[in-house]
Amino acid sequence: MITFFQLIGGVVLLLFGAEYLVAGAVALARKLNISPMIIGMTIVAYGTTAPELVVSLEASINGQPGIAVGNVIGSNIANILLILGTSALITPFACKPAALYRDAAVMMGSALLFVALALSGTIERWQGVLMFAALVVFSLYAYVAERRRGAADGPAELAEEFEEGPKSVWLSLLAIAGGVASVVIGAKLLVTGAVTLARILGVGEEVIGLTVVAIGTSLPELATAVVAAVRKHSDVALGNIFGANIYNLLAIMGLVATVTPVTVPPQILRFDLWFMLAVTVALLFTVLVRRRLDRGAAAMFLLAFVSYTALQYYGVENVLN
Fold it and tell me: Which residue has the higher pLDDT, 43 or 196?
C-alpha cells in the first residue's frame, strides 16, 4: 500500500510540478520580453522533460541504471505510441513534411547516436558531454535558422496550451520554485516506489523504468498533446513530441552520463534500444511519407504500445531465448 501511494504521489507531484514550472517560466519570460520562439525552444521543452531528467539523475546516482536508462527509452516509446496515438485518435493529424524535415532528421540522428554509444554497455562521461554538446549545437542552429526566416518576429503569443500563467514576477518566481521542489520530491517518491514495486513483482528495475516510470514522467507531454489535439493544434502536439524525444536522449542522458557514467542493462541492449529505433522510423514514415496520422494508424500505435508493455511483464528474455 505504501508503494502504491509513493508511485501515485510521485506522479502527481511530477505532473503538477512540471505544469507550474512551465507556467511560471513562460510568464517570467514574457515579463522580460523574451520572444515566443525562444520560450518554446527552451522553457517549454525543458520544462515538460524535467520529470525525466530528475528521475533519471536520481536513479543513476542511487545506482539504479535500469530505471535511469529505462525511463528515457520508455518515455521515447510512450511519447510516440501512447501519446501521439491517443492524440491522433482524438484529432487525426495532417502533416506538412517540409516543416518537419529538420527536427525529424535530428530526432532520428539522436536515436542513432544514442544506440551507437550505448552498444558498448556503458555511456561514459565524455560521451555524455558529446550528447549534450550536440543538443547545444542543434539549439543554436535552430535559433539562427528561425531568426533568418523571421519566426522570432512572428505571433506575439504561444499556442493556447501555454498562454495561462502567473500575472506578476513574484508569482512567477514562486511558481518556478514550487515547480522545481515538486519535481524533485516527486522524483524521489517515484524512484523509491518503482524500486520497491520491482522487488515485489520479481521483475528487473529496467522493466519498471521502461513502463511505470516512463509513463509517469511522460504525463506532462501527454497532457499537452491531448489538449493540443482537442484544440486542433496538431503542430503543437507533434512538435512537442519531436522536441521531447530529442531532449530525452541528448539532454537527459547527456547530463546524467556527465554526472556519473551510466551502465545500460543487457535487456535494453538486446531489445528495447532497437524497438525504440523501429518506433522512431515508423513515426517518421507516417508523418513524412504518408503525410498523415489518422485514426487507423493511431489505433495501431496504441495496440503496439499495449503489446510492448505486456511483453515487458511476460518477459522479453522468454521471447528472445
Answer: 196
